[in-house]
Specification:
Helix content of chain A: 25-40%
Strand content of chain B: 35-45%
Shape of chain A: globular
Largest interface: A-B, 34 and 38 residues
Number of strands of chain B: 19
Mean pLDDT of chain B: 92
Structural class of chain B: mainly beta
Distance between the termini of chain A: 69 Å
Distance between the termini of chain B: 78 Å
Largest sheet of chain B: 6 strands, mixed
Strand content of chain A: 15-25%
Oligomer: heterodimer
Chain lengths: 134, 326
Amino acid sequence: MFPLFSKLPFLSAILVTSVCMAFLYSSPIVTAAPSVERVTFQLNGPRCNVQHAKIISTLSPLPGVRAVDLSSVPGHALIDIDTETSSGQNLIENVRKLWRDEASCLVEPMQSCISANPFDHIGRSSTSHVGTVH
Amino acid sequence: MLKIDSDRRLGVIGVSLLLGLIFSSAPAFAKTHEVSMTAVETDVIIDGSGEKYAAWTFNGQMPGPVVRVTEGDTVKFTLTNPATNKFPHAMDFHAAEIDFLKNYRAINAGETINYTFVAKKPGIFFYHCGAPPMIQHIARGMFGAIIVDPKNAKVWAKADREYVLVQSEHFKNPDDVQGMFDRKFDGIMFNGGIFKYHPFVSGGGKLDAKPGERVRIYFVNAGPNEFSAFHPIGEIWDNVYESGNPANKLTGVQTYVVGPGSAATFDVVVESAGAYPLVTHSLTGALRGAIAVLLASPDAKPQPLMPMVPWKVSTPQTEITPVPVQ
């Protein structure tokens, strides 16, 4: 069926290898889309409302932070992070360092019975489809 | 002679009054609604990460569009199954009282079916595809809600804000019919999304209300298998109306069970600002997707009956931006 293969095996091997290499290198590189996770902080204190700008400017430059939303849920900061470069734990540690002397607006990780991710006791939520209560 | 005239006059007045009464109580102002839907086999987004699901839908969305009529109205319904589809589909309206063999039969791709019914009873009703295997057609997204408003709007308290929530099970493998029979669901959805109205979850939104408003939830459990124990965390249902019929009124209810294929209307008046998650208290369902946060805030804006349907999840930007919630 393929007489070339039997008559010129060496050339055939080179030909097949070349075709395969060309195919591999011309194919688009498929990379997984970065996973985004939402971390929620509760803002407690009399001066939280006037410190929105400071909160945003503090959180925004942190590695892996993709979006900061202080308007959707009053008294809360909703932060979308890229899980490849950051984690909820990492973000919380950073925030605690930055806010350790700040008594007028306490920033704490949110935990509640509707936290979606059960195996995480630092208060982060994700789109994980399993859960627990309190 | 005079007596006869007087009797005749009285008779005419009596008949006129009687006719007036009949026409004022009958659906004299009943409307006819032409409702057309198309079976669409398409991908839909089912979570905040943008995950797609190979759904079967009415009009390309899961749940299908909300149909709203008034008690006594006539619905002239048309279902189209385009030739581009692969499977037979059908439509079963729980608000209708008509022959199922003739009207709810499955039609093949390329066919159309029409039927007419009068929405005689007020309430919130399920509609769904009944093509075999029905368990799969419902699990894959062919369901929705029809509201039949009571003819007399004063029969119940006026709602300040209304939402439709349709609960359903999510099976990751849409072709695993045996898994559906075995009740091996992977998540529970409200309005076709896992944690769709959960603002603490990536891509999640919320339901808005103002403190003091009477919020009316038209709730349908599409199933196909699981019961819902619908409960407002931090609140008590002021009223629950079984099947959404104002005559079926309960007061001061903490949790109300809605079986698959059933529905109820829930009224809640949130007294103060804050978050009130609406959940199925069957926690394996709530914590796998069936949480809708009702957020009470003085500056709450109006929202549609079924917010975020279809769900268009925005990818977070590379720069810092507010998280999109709508």
